[in-house]
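pasting for the record
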Amino acid sequence: MSMIITAKDNDKIKYTKSLLKSKNRNKESKFIIEGYRILTLAIECRAKLDYVFINEDFEKKQEHKEFLETL
């Protein structure tokens, strides 16, 4: 399911930002990955992804559009 997030006070954004701190990552047993290549590797390895955030420019490239269809 995709949605457009425009507010910085969105709960998913807040939660993800909290994972920037090591103690929160350890507590939640979660981590953040950034970048197209590492995201594709995570998907190939069948990693469980809680959220995928992209910016508007990402979906403009044809390669990325095809990738997003696989999510």
